[in-house]
Automatic annotation (TrEMBL):
It is a multi-pass membrane protein. SUPFAM superfamilies: MetI-like. Belongs to the binding-protein-dependent transport system permease family. One of its GO terms (biological process) is transmembrane transport. It comes from Paenibacillus oryzae. Its main location: membrane. It is found in: Cell membrane. This is Sugar ABC transporter permease. Pfam families: BPD_transp_1. The chain crosses the membrane at residues 21-39, 78-105, 117-136, 148-169, 190-212, 272-291. Keywords: Cell membrane, Membrane, Transmembrane, Transmembrane helix, Transport. GO terms for cellular component: plasma membrane.
Length: 306
């Protein structure tokens, strides 16, 4: 077997080998370009703000410090805001993915007479929205202003996610669903006990999309819950910190200003921005390895069909 593999390698042309080497060089370059900004952000976030103004911070902090993180975590509302972000991400992802999957299952059924009309109705919303002001008025009339549920209900159905899950369901063997009906299972029982376990790759992919969107969202907090500090999220608090630091730095003679909390910590908009990026990214990076296998499968939906 080893000799056969060696003979195959020898039979490869020079062009094929050059193509492989080119691919390797290209992928290494792409990896460096992709990873370097994040590594640089980590280095800046752990570097002294006064020293970082000089520049020259690339892959490693020149003067190690935790002052940037102390400044952000020294804010009194940051921990409660993190809890709200966690709750809206978990609850919003579960509710959205489950409801979107139910809709996808319904539209995927050939016996559903209005499946094309309903599909076009939802696809239409991907291209045309009601606008910011009508949406705000609708949210107000629904009584969702200054409410936690404004983070959940407006995004309960994702049209793109519905299409992804529907495509996966349509690829399932019809015999599996038919056997469930023969055994006396209803549509909801078939969906919960048969369809959901078989669509884990698609569900994991969509869950990652929804979770990232929920975790990074701050504009809805600004629109609907900015007057209620108890419903503020981590991203919104970080945005306010960055806005405050930028305003203070612009108003002063230099780019460095002292923390107003009395700790004497010196920060800059650049160091705060880098620290905020790391804080906001770490939770998602911790979740991704657990869904990576399903995510890769879900991204290849429709590539190979049995």
């Amino acid at each position: 077997m080893l000799a056969l593999k060696k003979s195959r390698l020898r039979r490869r042309s020079l062009g094929d080998r050059l193509f492989d080497y080119g691919n390797i060089v290209f992928m290494i370059g792409l990896m460096i370009v992709t990873i370097y900004p994040f590594v640089n952000m980590i280095a800046v976030s752990f570097n002294d703000a006064n020293d970082a103004v000089r520049g020259g911070i690339y892959l490693w902090p020149r003067l190690w410090t935790l002052d940037n993180y102390s400044y952000i975590f020294g804010e009194s509302d940051i921990y409660h805001a993190t809890l709200i972000s966690f709750l809206r991400t978990v609850l919003g992802t579960i509710v959205s993915v489950f409801c979107t999957a139910m809709l996808a299952f319904t539209i995927s059924r050939q016996e559903f007479v209005l499946r094309k009309a309903v599909t076009m109705f939802f696809v239409f919303t991907m291209y045309f929205s009601g606008g910011l002001i009508p949406t705000y008025l609708l949210i107000r009339d629904l009584g969702l202003i200054n409410s936690f549920w404004v983070y959940i209900f407006p995004g309960i159905i994702g049209v793109f996610n519905m299409i992804v899950i529907r495509s996966f369901i349509e690829g399932l063997p019809d015999g599996i669903l038919e056997s469930a009906r023969i055994d006396g299972a209803g549509e909801f029982t078939t969906f919960v006990r048969v369809v959901l376990p078989l669509t884990i790759p698609a569900m994991a992919t969509v869950s990652l999309f929804v979770a990232v969107g929920q975790w990074n969202s701050w504009f809805d907090v600004f629109l609907y819950n900015s007057s209620n500090i108890k419903l503020s999220t981590l991203q919104y608090e970080l945005m306010k910190i960055l806005q405050t630091s930028t305003t203070a730095a612009t108003a002063s003679a230099g780019d460095i200003y002292q923390s107003q909390g009395g700790s004497g910590t010196s920060v800059t908009p650049t160091s705060i921005r880098a620290t905020m990026t790391i804080i906001a990214s770490v939770p998602i990076l911790m979740v991704y390895p657990f869904v990576q296998r399903y995510f890769v499968q879900g991204m290849t939906l429709g590539g190979v069909k049995g």
